[in-house]
Specification:
By secondary structure, this protein is mostly helical. It has twelve helices and no strands. The chain folds into two domains: about 140 residues, no CATH class; about 160 residues. It is globular.
Length: about 350
């Protein structure tokens, strides 16, 4: 009877703990991306936090000042990029409105042997594009409160991660249900994959920026160095990346009647600039981690889908750590068979 009572108590405790875990996950789930972003940003900026210990001893003050600096620099950078892109968008819009592509229509009609009026299709595309932009801006405006909450969670989490990061890593190692050397291996692999992924993202973006700048020079785009620097930054972002810069520039050339440079830049952008990111980044990460490029590519694509922008870093890291855990498991299984 006593054993039966103990079994019921264990079952009840299991149900209560499981329910609390499920409810807690549901509560936190909307902010998981923000929390993971805070972890990644803290990892990136932690060396700066550690080095500033000689200047500011107080951990709380040091965390606050570093987050304040990161926020100010980010806002300045975003305002600069936004201003450039808005000015470019206005230029692009006016170019589109004044564009007359009868010459291109005549050329295409001669090639295809049919009478094609591209002006009609072009105006329809411009109107739809404008409607899409206005709708997107409205959607962004509606989600500002939600994004503000996410930003607050990111910076609030970073504040405590800077302060208590070392002790948290220590507790994590202690609570891992693994041998000490295996725990160390997993932590070391995590550091290795994080560093390699960040390195791959930055180096691939710089390479895209340099090659993109060369393309802007070749195809006679104004202020190629400034736009090349912007391209280096935007290349770090997924989906559109460097094409945010070179594609509108190519369209401006194309619809200003400069078909050679317009078409040339589009071909150069698609064939050379865009392919660099897809080929170079997985190769760089793979070379530093000794993980197959396919695993890295799957990590990048899966991470982007699951976590958004921050998945660019988290995806390859998680898959890399999984590979490390599988190797540890295989090693232990092999030892068990031999014993």
């Amino acid at each position: 009877m006593k054993n039966l009572s103990l079994d019921y108590n264990k079952l009840f405790l299991f149900i209560v703990v499981s329910s609390i875990i499920i409810v807690s996950f549901v509560l936190v789930q909307p902010f998981i991306t923000a929390i993971l972003t805070a972890f990644v940003l803290t990892y990136i900026f932690y060396p700066l936090y550690a080095k500033s210990e000689n200047i500011i001893r107080n951990k709380s003050l040091r965390s606050f000042i570093l987050i304040l600096i990161i926020t100010i620099v980010t806002l300045i950078f975003l305002s600069f990029i936004t201003n450039l892109l808005i000015n470019e968008s206005v230029t692009l819009y006016h170019t589109f409105k004044k564009a007359d592509i009868k010459e291109l229509s005549t050329m295409l009609s001669g090639v295809l042997g049919e009478n094609i009026d591209l002006n009609l299709y072009f105006k329809e595309i411009v109107n739809r594009g404008l409607n899409f932009i206005l709708t997107s801006l409205s959607d962004i405006a509606l989600t500002i409160p939600q994004k503000a909450i996410s930003l607050f969670i990111i910076f609030f989490t970073m504040y405590y991660l800077f302060k208590e990061g070392e002790s948290l890593v220590g507790k994590f190692k202690e609570n891992l249900l693994l041998k000490k050397d295996h725990s160390e291996k997993i932590i070391n692999k995590f550091n290795e994959f994080m560093q390699a992924t960040i390195y791959g993202v930055i180096v691939a973006a710089i390479a895209q920026g340099i090659i993109g700048t060369i393309g802007l020079f070749i195809f006679r785009i104004e202020n190629p160095i400034i736009w090349g620097l912007v391209m280096t930054i935007t290349a770090m972002f997924p989906y559109f990346g460097a094409s945010i810069v070179w594609f509108p520039a190519a369209l401006v050339k194309l619809f200003s009647g400069d078909y050679f440079n317009g078409i040339g830049l589009i071909v150069y952008g698609v064939v050379i600039i865009s392919l660099i990111d897809n080929i170079l980044r997985p190769k760089l990460i793979s070379a530093r981690t000794r993980i197959h490029p396919i695993v890295v590519l799957l990590g990048v694509l899966g991470g982007l889908k699951l976590f958004g922008f921050i998945g660019l870093i988290l995806g390859p890291v998680l898959l890399g750590v999984l590979v490390a855990v599988i190797k540890i498991y295989n090693l232990e299984t092999e030892k068990y068979r031999k014993s």
